[in-house]
Write a structure and sequence with these properties.
- The chain is α/β, with parallel strands linked by helices.
- It has helices at about 5-30, 35-40, 45-55, 75-85, 125-140, 160-170, 190-195, 200-205, 220-230, 265-275, 280, and strands at about 70, 145-150, 175-180, 210-215, 235-240.
- Strand 2 (about 145-150), helix 6 and strand 3 (about 175-180) form a beta-alpha-beta unit.
- The structure holds thiamine diphosphate and magnesium ion.
Length: about 280
C-alpha cells in the first residue's frame, strides 16, 4: 500500500501537518483553554483528508458534489480549524480568535458559523449518525459525494455511536468511511481502564464494516487505507488508526493530562521549539 504513495507527497503532507500542530499550540495557548491532546493525535488524519483525499473546493464550499467531513469528536476543533485556514477557507490570523466571544471558531465546530463544517458536533456519539444520514442522502440523490467521519475512542463508549454504525453497515454505505482516532486515552485516563472498547476491529467487522488497521501517523498507510476504502464496494470502511495522544510534543504524548488543558507560555514555547519553530519566534 505504502509504496504507491510518492515520497514527495508524504514530505509535503508531513510539512503541512507540522504547521497545523504549531497552530494548535498557538491557538490553545492564546485561548487559555481547549483540547490539544486529541487535536494533535488526529492531525495527520485531518491533513491527509483536507490536503489530499477530499474532493472539495474552498471557493465553492456549497458545491453539492463535494465530499463531506464530519468531526464527530468535535472537541478536536483546533486541528480542523488550522487545516481549513491553511487550505484557504478563512484567514489564518483568525485562528487566534479560538474560543473568544463572537468568534467563528468556537470550542466545538459550528456549521452555522464556518464554511466546510458540515455538522455541529461536540456532543459525543452524534456526529456519526449525521454522517450516516449524509451518506444515505448522497446515495438517494445519486451524488458521487463520499462522507468521512472522525471518531474518538472514548467517544465509542457513547451508545448512539453503535446505533449509527449499525445503520451504516445495514445499508452497505460504501460511500462512508469511519476513521477511528485510537489514541488510547479520554478525559480522565485510558479508555481500556475506564470502559474498554476492545476488540474494536472485531466489533466493527461484526457491524459489517470493511476494516483496516493502520499507524495513524504514517501517511503512506493513511493514504493507502483511504484508497482501499474507495475501492471497496457494498460496505462502509472503518479505518482504525493507532495514534499517539499529544503526538509531536514530547510532554503531551501518551497521557490524558493534555486532553482539555492549554499550555502555559513556557509550555507553549517549549512545544513550538520541539515542532521546529526558531527559539526567538517561539518566545514571542
Ligand atoms: C455526550 C458527551 N459526553 C461527555 C462529553 C465530555 N467529553 C468531551 S471530550 C471527552 C472524551 C473523549 O475521548 P476521546 O473520544 O477518546 O477523545 P480524544 O482522545 O480523541 O480527544 C468527553 C467525555 C461530551 N463532549 N459529550
Ligand atoms: Mg481518545
Amino acid at each position: 500500500m505504502a509504496s504507491e504513495v510518492s515520497g514527495e507527497l508524504v514530505e509535503s503532507l508531513q510539512a503541512t501537518a507540522r504547521e497545523i500542530r504549531r497552530d494548535i499550540i498557538r491557538m490553545t495557548y492564546a485561548a487559555g483553554s481547549g483540547h490539544p491532546g486529541g487535536s494533535l493525535s488526529m492531525t495527520d488524519l485531518v491533513t491527509a483528508l483536507v490536503f489530499h483525499e477530499l474532493k472539495i473546493d474552498p471557493t465553492r464550499p456549497d458545491w453539492p458534489e463535494r465530499d463531506r467531513l464530519v468531526l464527530s469528536k468535535g472537541h478536536a476543533a483546533p486541528a480542523l480549524y488550522a487545516a481549513l485556514a491553511l487550505r484557504g477557507y478563512f484567514p489564518r490570523e483568525e485562528l487566534l480568535t479560538l474560543r473568544k466571544l463572537g468568534s467563528r471558531l468556537q470550542g466545538h465546530v459550528d456549521r452555522n458559523k464556518l464554511p466546510f463544517i458540515e455538522a455541529s458536533t461536540g456532543c459525543l456519539g452524534q456526529g456519526i449518525g449525521m454522517a450516516v444520514g449524509m451518506a444515505l442522502e448522497a446515495r438517494l440523490d445519486r451524488r458521487p459525494s463520499r462522507v468521512y467521519a472522525i471518531l474518538g475512542d472514548g467517544e465509542c463508549q457513547a451508545g448512539p455511536t453503535w446505533e449509527a454504525l449499525m445503520a451504516g453497515g445495514h445499508y452497505r454505505l460504501e460511500n462512508l468511511v469511519v476513521l477511528l482516532d485510537r489514541n488510547g486515552f479520554e478525559t480522565d485516563g485510558s479508555t481500556e481502564a475506564i470502559m474498554g472498547i476492545e476488540p474494536i476491529v472485531d466489533k466493527l467487522r461484526a457491524f459489517r464494516y470493511r476494516t483496516v488497521e493502520i499507524d495513524g501517523h504514517d501517511f503512506g498507510q493513511i493514504l493507502g487505507a483511504l484508497a482501499t476504502a474507495r475501492a471497496t464496494p457494498d460496505a462502509p470502511t472503518a479505518i482504525v488508526a493507532r495514534t499517539v495522544k499529544g503526538k509531536g510534543v514530547s510532554f503531551m504524548e501518551n497521557t490524558h493530562v493534555w486532553h482539555g488543558k492549554a499550555p502555559s507560555k513556557a509550555e507553549a514555547e517549549r512545544a513550538l521549539i520541539e515542532l521546529g519553530v526558531p527559539a526567538a519566534e517561539a518566545a514571542r
